[in-house]
Amino acid sequence: MAVSDSREVVIEATPEEIMDVIADVKSAPDWSSQHQGAEILEEDANGRPGKVKLKLKTMGISDEQVVQYSWTDTSASWKLVSSSQLKTQDASYTLTPDGAKTKVRFEITVDPSVPIPGFVLKRAMKGGLEAATDGLRKQVMKVKKSKG
């Protein structure tokens, strides 16, 4: 059964600064507790990650996934290519500039290929949403500080 959720966060940075952090998939384990590793298999024409192999661990469940990214100036999304634990996964970041800040909306839909108790799946989704928003915000501010 597919489960969807979303979360928004406001980050005091430009969409470009935020997209740079999202595109730096190899740094994801630094700011997302679920990410154990990331390897870029293919890049798109702009040098951003295209096909990416991810090692993830959530609620004691390990998974190796291959995802295909799509990029615009104000969005990043990915679709699941392969996984040992999921049938499908669609996720996206949508960035809306708001003066010196940017509103970031993260949306995700997952469909586990193995039965997972509802409360475990909900908790895993909540952890993923927190990492994708609060973790992203902390990393963007850290990168911004180190450059400034």
TrEMBL record:
Q: Which SUPFAM superfamilies match?
A: Bet v1-like (SSF55961)
Which residue ranges does UniProt annotate as crossing the membrane?
none
Q: Which Pfam families match?
A: Polyketide_cyc2
Gene3D superfamilies named in the record: 3.30.530.20
Q: What is this protein called?
A: Cyclase
Q: Which organism is it from?
A: Mycolicibacterium arabiense
| Origin organism lineage | Bacteria, Bacillati, Actinomycetota, Actinomycetes, Mycobacteriales
